[in-house]
Amino acid sequence: MYHDILPKKKVSFDVTVKQFEKHLELIKKNGVTPISLDQLIQHLRTGKPLPAKPIVLTFDDGYIGHYQIVYPLIKKYNYPAVFSVYTDKIEGKIVGRSTLTWEQLQEMAANPLVTIASHSVTHPKNLTKLSDRELQQ
Ligand SMILES: [Zn+2]
Question: Backbone phi, then psi, for 68, in 5-degree steps?
């Protein structure tokens, strides 16, 4: 469960490009098999077997590094990945780190390795505190 991947860490859960490339090498070296979210869902629904040492690579919040750094690397390694975005950030309504654009997401979504997942509209801090109506939205 990754968040931002960037040249230099800014907060504890950031991962540097070097660290991320090391993770990808370790995955390869240790026979771990990145699978898609669809493969996992199929497995959970039907029991369809998974490859050895399956792992789902996920990237939350829609940072620009997902397009500039992660996307080229998952293509290089041929690893599926899930990118969970919240639309207020893509729309530019959240001030902060650089964000993916709709065009970049469209390009990524066209690649069969990529799954784009919902991470809500506004990224509420605590979903358990929302009303049913707010959850629906
Ligand atoms: Zn998040």
Answer: -75, -35
